Amino acid sequence: MGIPAMQSLVPVILGGDIGVYAIGRSFHEAFGVRSVCVASAPTEAISRSRIFEVEHLPSRAGDAETLAVLEGVAASHPGRDLVLMANHDVHSAFVARHAQQLGEHYALPFPDLATIDRVTDKAHFARVCGRLGVPTPRTVVVDMSEAEDPAWRPPEVDLPFPLVAKAARGDAYDAVTFEGKRKIWFLEEPSELEALWGALRRAGFRDTFLVQELIPGDNTQMRSITAYVDSRGRATLIGSARVLLEDHAPTMIGNPVAMITEPFPQLWEDARRILASTGYRGFANFDVKIDPRDGRAVFFEVNPRIGRNNWYMTAAGANPMTPMVADLVEGPDGPDAPVREAGEEILYSLVPDRLLLRYVRDDALRARVAGLIRSGRRFDPLVYEAETDRRRSTVIALQKINQYRKFRRYYPRATDRSF
C-alpha cells in the first residue's frame, strides 16, 4: 500500500455496520493496521474481512457489559496505542458517559458529555445557530416529559403542512420501539401528527420531539460536512459532499447512499463557527440542505461522530484518521500544521450505477455523475482490493442488487421531498 504500518496502533470500533467498516478501512489505508470490531452481530463485510478482528458483544449489552468487553480488549493489547471509535449516537453517548474510565486505556476522539448533550439536542442546536446567524428550519419544540399525564396535550403547531417531525435527541428515540417507527416523519395533514403523538406516548417516549417546516427540494439539495477538531480546538480536517441519493427505508431515511465530494467554503466556515462556539472536540458530521427557493444553506443538525458515510473523505484525499492519530496518539501538531481538506472530486456510491442515474433528475448533474463513472473515479467503501474472501464479495454484490428492490418499495420515483 506504500505506507508503513504503525505497529503500535490498535483501532477499536463499536458497532458492526457499513460505517464501522469504513472507519476500519481508513485506518488500514493510512497505517496498514487491522481494527477490532466490538459488536453483537457485525455484517459479513466485517466478519469476513481481512482488515478486522471481531470481539463479540452480548446482545442488548448494557453499559457495564460493554465496558467489561472494552477493558478486556485493552488488557489483551498491553503497551499498544488504542483508539476507540464509534459511529452511532448511542455509542457516542456511551463513550462520553464513561470517558474517564475509558480514557485510561483509549484515545477518545469525541466531545465530552456536556457538549454532546448540547449539540445533539436539535432544539439547542437551533438556538446556537440562531446566535451565529446560521439558518435552520422553523421549528416547534414539543416537550413530552409529562406525556404520561392523561391531561397532557401537545402545543399547537403553527406551521403549514406538509411537515417534518423527528426526535430532538437520537439516543432518547433509539430507546423506544413501536410499530411503524421511522427515523424521520413526513406528515401530510394534522391527523397524521395526532397519530404520531399517540404512538410516542404509548411507546413511553418522554423526551423532546421537533416539528419543522419542510424545506423543498430532492436529495440532491442535501450537503454533508465532516470535520475534526483537535485537542487544542483547531478544526484540522474538513470536507464536504453533495448528496445524490438517500436511503428511504423507514429506519434509514436520510442516510446518503451516493454523493459527489465538493468543497463548499461558506458551509465550512459556518461549521467551524458552530464548533468553535460550543467548545467542540473530536469528529463531527453536519447535515445541511440548500433551499431552492432562495439558495439559503439550512443547517439541520450536527452528529457527535464521524458519520456513516465517512469514507468519502478518504476517497477524496483527506483520510480522517491521519489528523486524529497525529493529535491524540502521536501528540498535537505544531501551531502551523496545515488543515487537511477533501479536495478531490470523486463519486461515492453504495448503489448500482444504473439505479443512481435513474434518480438524478438534473441533466448537468447526471452528466457529471456519468463522467465520474467513466473516468474510474467511482468508489464503494465496501469494495477494497485488500479483501480476498469470495463469500464476502458475493454478499456485497447481492446487497447492491437488492437496492433495486428497496428503492422500488420505498422510493419508486424521485420527488422533491428530502429529509
TrEMBL record:
Which superkingdom does the taxonomy of this entry point to?
Answer: Bacteria
Keyword Ligase part of the UniProt annotation: yes
Q: Does the keyword Flavoprotein apply?
A: no
Q: Any idea which GO molecular function terms this record carries? A: ligase activity
Q: Which UniProt keywords apply?
A: ATP-binding, Ligase, Nucleotide-binding
Positions of the ATP-grasp domain: 126-330
* Name by which UniProt lists this protein: Carboxylate--amine ligase
